Amino acid sequence: MGNIFVKKPKITEVDRAILSLKTQRRKLAQYQQQLDAVIEAEKQAAKDLIREKRKDRALLALKKKKTQEELLKQVDAWLINVEQQLADIELASKQKAVFESLKAGNNAIKAIQSEINLDDVQKLMGDTAEAKAYQDEINAILGERLSAEDEEDVLAEFESLETEIALHTLPTVPSTVAQEARTGIEDQGRTEKPEVNVVKQKHGDEDLETIEAIEEEVLELPDVPTNQVPGRTKVLEEPLPA
């Protein structure tokens, strides 16, 4: 009962042509098998007649064999044509199916695009931009974004870190050179000026702080001019009156 309401597929002219070609191909294949059997039989008959020394009958069998072979070649050509036409029909059917699919897809795109208005799209994009700008303003008010001063502080910290990294990447001084520099500084510190020695001899065993203070006073004294006044020198050299 259920098969009564099943809709049978419609048979088209293409389907009939394909069916006819496939039927003809099957018949040609059967005809090939028959010709092969006849050719093999005529060949065997010719062998038997040759053994019996019946030359005329053997030649007749070979002529029949030759005729069947020519007919077999013609059948092979027919079969090739049938196969080629079947392949062309199948290819054309697939091309038509692809074309129909593309056509249906194009119609679907047009139908969808007809439901979308260009003005509505532009309005939607404008509304989206306004909503984004409004959200940015809200974020700025709520403090989610850095102020101009914060941006400057961040840039300053970046430059400081960049300078620090650059200093760390400088080549290190060899240990021998550093040792020589420290040795020279220590020797210079141990070398005392003549004025400091005089002060130490004058004051004896005074504490280190007093000596350093005196040393600073000696260092701050102005330089004595080297040119002396001739008149004063002569006065000092003359003896005082009795």
TrEMBL record:
Presence of the UniProt keyword Membrane in the record: yes
Chief subcellular location: membrane
One biological process term in Gene Ontology: late endosome to vacuole transport via multivesicular body sorting pathway
Localisation per UniProt entry: Endosome membrane
Keywords: Coiled coil, Endosome, Membrane, Protein transport, Transport
UniProt feature coiled coil, ranges: 14-52
InterPro entries associated with the record: Snf7_fam
Any GO CC annotation of this UniProt entry: multivesicular body
Pfam families for the chain: Snf7 (PF03357)
Similarity section: Belongs to the SNF7 family.
Name the record gives this protein: Uncharacterized protein
